[in-house]
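Entry — protein

Goal — fold tokens:
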Amino acid sequence: MSTTALKPPAVLAWRDYDPAACELPGMFLGELTLPGPPESASDQVWRLGARRVRLSGPVDLTGGADPARAAATVGALSLVRDLTARAVLVEWDLRLDPAAAVDDWQALSHLQPPRNLDGPAGSDEALTAWRRGHYLCKCVWRKGPDFVQIRDRRWGELRRFTADEPEYEKAIERLAYGVPAPAVPRAVIDDFRSEKLVLDVGPLAWWLPYRISRWLQESMAI
């Protein structure tokens, strides 16, 4: 559970993935304000029948975020991540720092690709690569009996991270919806950062992988 007071953004929502189908009467759900905690936002969207959603403003990862701005960014990223895990079509825009490395987008490449990507030189090519290379379950985590495992294919090959120490599972629970970085044991967050499993947004650290909500095929093949 996060210690950060944040809320998911309001979204426009439709009952179908197909834009043509969304033009039919009764398919538009209007603007959804999600009053519950961020942990339940994707469940609320799904239960309401939404299969396509649109965020109203860009997700801004440019530097120098103050706590309120960081919380808003993390709230939006959490919703994109959790809806990606449910295979809901998310229409969103992403703004990266112009001084960011040209491959920084790859840390987010397991998420539904954004409509627009603003940032360093080469962003158009990066967005094309993101769209071509995206698939469900690209970077996921799961909880087993007395262990957690992350399976990550964001850089092409499979990278697997398994931990049976209880502090790792507790850290994931805290990081899931954003938490001040000092609230996580230094050794644990350093391990996660070395594997690019945590994104720093201003004063907050945020957990990148999503928990599996929908398998593409039998779990043993994934």
